[in-house]
Design goal:
By secondary structure, the chain is α+β, with helices and mostly antiparallel strands. 33% of the residues lie in helices and 25% in strands. It has two domains: 4-168, Uridine Diphospho-n-acetylenolpyruvylglucosamine Reductase, domain 3; 174-278, 2-Layer Sandwich (Enolase-like, domain 1). The protein has helices at 10-20, 31-34, 76-81, 87-94, 99-104, 107-113, 121-126, 144-147, 222-228, 236-250, 261-278; strands at residues 4-5, 23-25, 49-51, 61-64, 67-71, 130-135, 138-143, 148-150, 153-154, 161-168, 174-180, 191-200, 203-212. The strands form four sheets. Strands 4-5-10-6-7 form a five-stranded antiparallel sheet. Strands 1-3-2 form a three-stranded parallel sheet, covered by helices on one side. Helix 10 packs antiparallel against helix 11 (261-278). The longest helix is centred in the last third of the chain and has 18 residues, at 261-278. The chain is globular and about 60 Å long. The structure holds flavin-adenine dinucleotide (FAD).
Length: 281
């Protein structure tokens, strides 16, 4: 059986991580599944593990001057019930798994697991989220979008921990979130969609669109969003064909046990079109 560390402080956790590269875990709802052997058997970890879900620095949720900070190990249940949680994120968290998973699972785990179908990733992407990574040698801030390098792959080093998740509270005139799954609970996404829009008078002042489960990592393109920003609302319909064609090349879904590539692409493009044109007038 592998050794499990249970550090008492963040300093101790970072030291252990630096010296042993032990695998950190919080809720364990991804890790235990990944290493499971079968009913009644302990998981077959291939390296030492370290529980970090109790560390005070990683379990704080706070809002200060419009900046929202979520500790990496705050469980979904607390995020859902916090009064400052943006509605779009509350909705995404409350559609994850079922209450038992929401009691244990954390946003830090969802991010570090780096599944293309991680449900918090599209809303976090449009919130322009930044992450704080820490090791014994210091701290660095990275954007959420630069964190992922492929399915299950990130820039997190073996000596680092994800400490916090930060974004500014959003101010938009419309938002959309949609999780397309086989059923309402305990279903992984076939497609996840999150979007914000800001209208000023008759013009589109800002728009942010992100999609999950349709490419190796979460999809968001500021370049494509910029094609709509500053345009009169009455022109949006004319811009849609070119825009959807460009999103069609960005979206590279796979066919797997949950859905097929064509379905995923069609649904994604429909969700973008419906969101933009519904908000047209
Ligand atoms: C029944 C069931 C239903 C589910 N439904 C959904 C769903 O609908 N949508 C969805 O997106 N996911 C779903 N999941 C997956 C999972 O619950 C989420 O991804 C959850 O957010 C993982 O959080 P955790 O704390 O349990 O992660 P853990 O399992 O503890 O860790 C996951 C990974 O992240 C790493 N890690 C965790 N915290 C840190 C940290 N602070 N620093 C560095 N590395 C870290 C771990 O080493 C591991 O590789 C489901 C899982 C189950 C079992």
């Amino acid at each position: 059986m592998v050794k499990t560390y249970h550090p008492e402080t963040l300093t101790e956790a970072l030291k252990i991580r630096n010296e042993t590269h032990a695998l950190p875990y919080a809720g364990g709802t991804d890790l235990m599944v990944r290493y499971r052997q079968g009913p009644g058997l302990v998981p077959a970890f291939d390296r030492e593990v370290m529980f970090i879900g109790h560390l005070p620095e990683l379990t704080k949720l706070q809002e200060k001057n419009g900046e929202f900070a979520i500790g990496a190990c705050v469980p979904y249940r607390e995020i859902i019930h916090h009064r400052h949680t943006p509605e779009i994120l509350r909705k995404a968290c409350s559609l994850i798994g079922a209450p038992a998973v929401q009691n244990l699972g954390t946003m830090g785990g969802n991010i570090c697991n780096a599944s293309p179908a991680g449900d918090t990733l599209p809303p976090l992407a449009i919130l322009d989220t930044h992450l704080t990574l820490q090791s014994v040698s210091g701290e660095r801030q990275v954007s959420l979008l630069s964190f992922f390098t492929g399915p299950g792959k990130t820039i997190l080093r073996d000596d680092e921990l994800l400490i916090g998740i930060h974004f500014r509270l959003p101010h938009f005139t419309a938002e959309g979130y949609r999780k397309v799954g086989t059923r309402k609970a305990n279903a992984l996404s076939k497609v996840a969609f999150a979007a914000f829009m800001l209208k000023e008078k008759d013009m589109l002042a800002d728009i942010r669109i992100a999609l999950g489960a349709v490419a190796p990592t979460v999809v968001r393109s500021r370049e494509l969003e910029n094609r709509l920003i500053g345009q009169p609302l009455t022109d949006l319909a004319n811009l849609m064909p070119d825009l959807l064609e460009s999103y069609g090349t960005l979206i590279q879904p796979i066919t797997d046990q949950r859905s097929d590539a064509n379905y995923r692409k069609t649904v994604s493009l429909n969700l973008i079109e419906n969101f933009v044109l519904k908000e047209e007038s």
